[in-house]
Task: inverse folding
């Protein structure tokens, strides 16, 4: 394989904290690599160095000549005054800068400089490029191209930044937590796009389904060292366990040898010391190996919760709208003890609003909420981290409680509780501003759980947490006696935790589906852009019938067959696609002919863009039908 990037002997330190030392990474063409490590290990710092945003303290990076790199960091800053179409062209690229010139010229009153730009657009084949841009924006559900960035939500901004990174079609694509703030539909689209893309990819993500399906190479950062695994996430989990077992066996062997050598050195006559220098030196080597601490202990969150009475939270016909947009319509439900509920839906459909209503931060427009007398709610929010940057973790925890009671009856001091959350003594007295984003999230999680709630509301708890902490949190949520309501776009996390899901539709309807996310995704009531209106317009009885039908489908592994209606649609699509592709060829000839003035060229360019989008949608439907078994 062709080598794209070689990093040798990279080291990085922030103040007294060493992130990694003299590590080397090789990236070859067509590899799809994920970096896996605990929070605070330096994953983002490594990506910044490889992307050229930062430099290492030591080391050298060698790249293929004219290597085109696109980097999507966790936090993207877009100009709030730019329109969507202007903001999406934020990468430095010749084609992008030419399209930017073209759009500026068309938007202005002076078109005298248009012809040289048109010639350049032709030379770079940029017409097709702009069509692809709008196509990708469309797939990411961004259709209002002239809307200013300042009017968009955080999720919409993330999608625009993602689109701007993908459309540059780099040879090396670097992504830092690309699934954060994306809804489940967008995550699945991105997963399919990257899986089928020919781009070389280097990414950091905590989404384990995403890792498993997209990546073919895993790099683990552990105790300042690099370990590589040629396979997906499932392969990594298996081989990492083998590595840890082998390492533990070597440590045990070294400890046995050390005890033997210590006995020999104690008994060794002083007169013979000069003859045994080599053996003494070897003892020091054995001692260093035996002193390795794997620190593979699980963070067991056996935190006790307040006793919960029979009545938890009852919702009676609650509704909530903002302006003309209805988010929740006439919803009733009684939350039971030890119940685990997941909430799914597209960005902006009202998931966070629902949690805010339960917690009393927002009042419903109508309906009422009754909360049991024994209920003690803790709310983990997306933007709940508001620590004083100059404070210390130990002081933050002590301000909440001096001690924390565990299920087994033990009591932890504030310092002991922080160690329980993987904050060693030295880190407890480190200023918050020196912690990584993931470490701050873990500290925030610590402050929420230590209040010992019996009802836990969690809004996107998986963002910025490393996989190791996620595994521990999953175990805690599975075993806790508390009732839990979770909003999350992490499919793996949802599948492990929830008993059922509330599905938020686009017109305020909330459906209670009896199963986890994957079971819902595979069911007949799964809501997509094409079918949500049909599902939401069904009567409650019809919807319940569909839920029972989907439940039966979950238990059945029989493949779906092509119906007569599907077959008719399939044959019709083949004819339509043939005609559309002929029209596409004619438009391409016309656009490249040079016979059109700039107004005709703009009109035909927009027509070509719409045509490509239509073809893609019909091709996707054709592929879906072709996969059905006869």
Result:
């Amino acid at each position: 394989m062709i080598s794209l990037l070689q990093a040798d002997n990279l080291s990085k330190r922030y103040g007294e904290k060493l992130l990694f030392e003299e590590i080397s990474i090789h990236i070859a063409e067509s590899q799809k690599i994920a970096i896996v490590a605990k929070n605070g290990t330096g994953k983002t710092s490594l990506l910044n160095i490889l992307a050229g945003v930062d430099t290492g303290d030591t080391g050298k990076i060698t790249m293929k000549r004219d290597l085109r790199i696109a980097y999507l960091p966790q936090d993207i800053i877009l100009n709030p005054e730019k329109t969507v179409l202007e903001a999406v062209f934020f990468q430095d690229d010749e084609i992008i800068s030419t399209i930017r010139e073209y759009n500026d010229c068309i938007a202005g009153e002076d078109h005298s400089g248009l012809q040289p730009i048109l010639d350049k657009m032709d030379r770079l084949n940029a017409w097709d490029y702009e069509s692809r841009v709008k196509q990708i924006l469309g797939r990411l559900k961004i259709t209002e191209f002239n809307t200013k960035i300042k009017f968009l939500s955080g999720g919409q901004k993330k999608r625009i930044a993602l689109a701007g990174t993908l459309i540059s079609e780099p040879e090396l694509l670097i992504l830092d937590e690309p699934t954060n703030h994306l809804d489940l539909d967008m995550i699945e689209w991105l997963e399919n796009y990257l899986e089928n893309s020919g781009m070389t990819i280097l990414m950091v993500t905590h989404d384990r389904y995403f890792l498993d399906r997209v990546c073919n190479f895993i790099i683990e950062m552990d105790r300042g060292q690099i370990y590589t695994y040629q396979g997906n996430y499932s392969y990594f989990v298996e081989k990492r366990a083998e590595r840890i077992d082998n390492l533990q066996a070597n440590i045990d062997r070294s400890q046995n040898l050390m005890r033997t050598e210590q006995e020999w050195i104690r008994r060794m006559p002083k007169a013979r010391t000069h003859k045994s220098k080599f053996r003494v030196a070897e003892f020091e080597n054995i001692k260093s190996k035996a002193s390795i601490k794997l620190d593979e202990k699980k963070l067991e969150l056996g935190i006790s919760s307040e006793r919960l009475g029979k009545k938890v939270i009852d919702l009676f016909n609650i509704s909530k709208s903002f302006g003309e947009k209805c988010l929740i319509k006439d919803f009733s439900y009684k939350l039971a003890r030890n119940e685990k509920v997941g909430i799914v839906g597209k960005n902006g459909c009202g998931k966070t609003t629902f949690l805010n209503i339960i917690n009393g931060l927002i009042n419903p427009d109508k309906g009422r909420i009754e909360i049991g007398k024994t209920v003690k709610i803790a709310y983990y929010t997306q933007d709940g981290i508001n620590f004083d940057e100059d404070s210390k973790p130990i002081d933050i925890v002590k301000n909440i409680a001096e001690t924390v009671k565990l299920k087994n009856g033990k009591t932890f001091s504030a310092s002991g509780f922080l160690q329980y959350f993987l904050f060693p003594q030295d880190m407890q007295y480190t200023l918050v501003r020196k912690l990584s984003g993931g470490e701050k999230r873990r500290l925030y999680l610590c402050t929420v759980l230590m209040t010992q709630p019996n009802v836990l509301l969690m809004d996107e708890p998986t963002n910025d947490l490393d996989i190791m902490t996620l595994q521990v949190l999953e175990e805690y949520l599975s075993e806790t006696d508390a009732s839990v309501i979770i909003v999350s776009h992490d499919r793996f996390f949802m599948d492990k935790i929830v008993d059922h899901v509330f599905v938020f539709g686009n017109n305020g309807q909330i459906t209670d589906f009896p199963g986890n996310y994957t079971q819902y995704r595979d069911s007949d009531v799964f809501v997509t852009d094409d079918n949500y209106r049909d599902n939401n317009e069904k009567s409650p009885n019809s919807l319940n019938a569909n839920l029972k039908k989907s439940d039966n489908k979950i238990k059945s592994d029989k493949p779906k067959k092509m119906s007569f209606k599907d077959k008719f649609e399939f044959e019709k699509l083949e004819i339509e696609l043939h005609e559309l592709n002929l029209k596409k060829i004619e438009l391409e000839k016309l656009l490249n002919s040079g016979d059109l003035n700039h107004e005709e060229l703009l009109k035909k360019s927009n027509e070509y863009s719409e045509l490509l989008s239509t073809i893609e949608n019909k091709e996707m439907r054709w592929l879906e039908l072709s996969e059905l078994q006869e």
In short: Residues 529-559 have pLDDT under 50 and may be disordered. Residues 77-168 form one domain. The longest helix spans residues 233-267. DSSP finds 22 helices and 20 strands in the chain.
